Every structure is written in structure tokens, then in C-alpha cells.
């Protein structure tokens, strides 16, 4: 975990979460940053106290490796996805599974909550995006258009649009306001590899990280590429806008974490040497940068 302020990126506290029984595929911080969620190859989802590293829970249920995990924006739920083709919705307070969502035909690689925590989007190796109602677990609609596996997703701040990224090297932005079976989408092209992570800013800009080792910042309303960020030596695993939207943090599939100026496209800070692989980065409301990952 790292404290960040403009001009100074320095290691603050480092905690080790070492009771996994398999490789960690994904991790996510709760909205208040007090809890760290980890998805493991051992088929379980783990919850940890961010500050102390204390293990809160180890939850089984999936019958295959857990690929991805994410908290709901209201902090009351989290979702996990798996090679077993399901999504599990969990209650944080009760640490119990509320719903098992079935509909995908292959491994589920990504999941996102809408800003109001009422809808869920999932995607995976079957090339389909499925929208779900969180409360009932009901499947609302399928979004079909990608030519390869879907690996990343994020809702726009307005909830009107959903962005998805794929191994087909494109980003699709789906207009969810349409109530027709055929949903209109925009296609953003420019990457030359898998779109491994997506993140909207509070103002509606969209950042995309890729296996081509670059990050693009887009203005979706005009389908225009605003800036391209280059500097990672490996594919980009995680990205996060600062609360102001003026900076972007990125974690490569390596020990390198960077902070960028979104206006100039310049890297203003680099942190190395703490983690072997950085999985997730997020800014806290008070401007600190938290990073989680794997270290031997």
C-alpha cells in the first residue's frame, strides 16, 4: 500500500496476505478501502482487513478457479466469477452467497456493478455480455457483438452506458437506454491487443489498458482518443482515476506501478520493487494510492 501526493510516490505500509492455497487471479478494494477481496485459483474468495492483513473470511462454493472479483459501489455486496461458468453474489455483512447466476457457456472473466448497485454486467469466453438484476438474480438481456473473449467491463457514471473490452482488441460502448432487443453500441479501436482493464472517470472519460502495454484515454461521446500512455514493460493489469480525474494510476503485470497526468500523458511517478505482480490499484477518497498484488 502506498501513499501518494503529487510529486511523491513512496512506500507507506506493506502487508502480506499469505494464506491462499492457490495463485491469486484478481483482487479488489471495498469502496471505503477497509477491506481487500482476493480471488484465488483454489476456488475460494478471501476477505482481508486492508490495514492489518487479518483474514476475515475464506468462502468456497465455486467449483473452479475464481477469476475475478468486485465490490458493489454501495459496499454491501461483492461478486465473484469463475471458470465454472457462474457468477456468485455475496452479502458482505453476512458473508454468505445470495445468488448463483447461471447463463454463460464458458469461463466468466469480468463483472461490473452499475453505480446504483442495482445491475450487474458479466462477460467471458463465450463472447457474450449478460446484464443481470442484482436483487432478483434475473437475467435482463444479452449483449452480442464482440468477436472474441470479453475480459473487462465498467459502467459509465450515469449508468446509461456499459463499456466492455475484449481479446478482439476493441472496446464496445453499449447504450443501455434502448429498450429494444437490439442494443446500439459504439466501437472504439486503436489497441493492438486484449483490452485487459477499463475504468470510467467521474466526468465520463474512459481509460483502457491493454496487452499491447499501453493505456488509452477516450472521450466516448465523440469516440475520440484523447491521449495514449506508454511506459509499461508488460501488459496493463489495472487502472484507476484519481478522485479529481486529473491523474491515472496503472499497474502492469509486473512490479511496476505508475501515476500519469491525464492532460499531458506524461508519467509523473513510478513505483517499483515492492510487488512481483501488481493486481489492483485504487485511489482512496483522501487521495492515497493503494496497490495490491503478489510477492514471493
TrEMBL record:
The keyword Repeat applies. Pfam families: WD40. One of its GO terms (cellular component) is nucleus. PROSITE patterns: WD_REPEATS_1 (PS00678), WD_REPEATS_2 (PS50082), WD_REPEATS_REGION (PS50294). WD repeats lie at residues 17-58, 59-100, 101-142, 143-177, 188-228, 229-270. Keywords: Repeat, WD repeat. This is WD repeat domain 38. It comes from Rousettus aegyptiacus.
